[in-house]
């Protein structure tokens, strides 16, 4: 493959009064939740509650029992242990609030495999952590969504509109002051990690992998959340490496290797009236290799004028990226449910100190026709 000789240093800025969020440094963000651990936690080993590591037995009852006992343990800190071995489980929820001293830990050493019967999932998530304050999900274990067996059922775009999407592998809902580290997510049915309604959560040293042609397998999807950090991880999947949904604020992403995948994207936005502003997104020191997109904002010709502001992509390396920067306001153009044409407002958006090589299209910025790109600059060296 021929490599472009030119190295492009580029920037896009959307006019506003000041670059408040874009200049915000990492040092000003709230520090990672790091509890002081004064004693060893009490261990709740799932095998002691009946889990069988044969890769066939459904261990949902054992997993729930171990979590329930740990969550109710009020005397000492608690840790749920999934030891080495392969454990199969159906739709599972670890829910709080817990009475155990904080933090409560889930350590995964083995491989957890999803059941592959679509009828067993009553909602679109496989493994859910819900309403927990101070969770530590850690270990070198694997969550295997067994996507190849489920992707053929990913047909919502071609069937009735009310069909159920495939489950996300790991969903975090109303989880605050927490850490997710060391985990591998393999072949998710749909999204690998779904962060919704959370605050002050750090995700790092993750390994997220699925084939480049796997459908809708976003690596990490974040929505309606504040103060989320994602860093020092490798993501290669079939959709966005990181997708940033509506009502996301104060998001920090750095030291991510992305590829294959669709880049790090904001959106799509503007589809539903309840959607709120995306404000304060900083993406730094990331590398994109063999991705369809790099930095992207995508919005619907929808029912609301969603706002995106204070966004910075900085110190980005892109190699063999088809579309380095995409601002697309017409992602649903031509769809039968297109009814409105409110322009989405994007402010304080910048891409700077970044380089692109082996670019497949002649223009580094694509898809901004008709949107509110009032002021822009491009410089090549």
- CA radius of gyration is 21 Å
What's the end-to-end separation, in Å? Answer: 21 Å
The general outline is globular
Mean pLDDT over the residues? 81
Helical segment count: 2
Architecture per CATH nomenclature, i.e. the level-2 architecture of the domain at 8-33 and 134-150 and 164-380: 3 Solenoid
> Structural class, judged by helices and strands?
mainly beta
Total E-strand runs: 29
Q: Give the low-pLDDT segments.
A: 1-36, 332-344, 369-381
CATH homologous superfamily annotation of the domain at 8-33 and 134-150 and 164-380: Single-stranded right-handed beta-helix, Pectin lyase-like
Supply database-style keywords.
381 residues; mainly beta; Pectate Lyase C-like; 27-stranded parallel β-sheet; two-stranded antiparallel sheet; 2 helices; 29 strands; globular; disordered N terminus; Galacturan 1; secreted; signal; cell wall biogenesis/degradation; Glyco_hydro_28
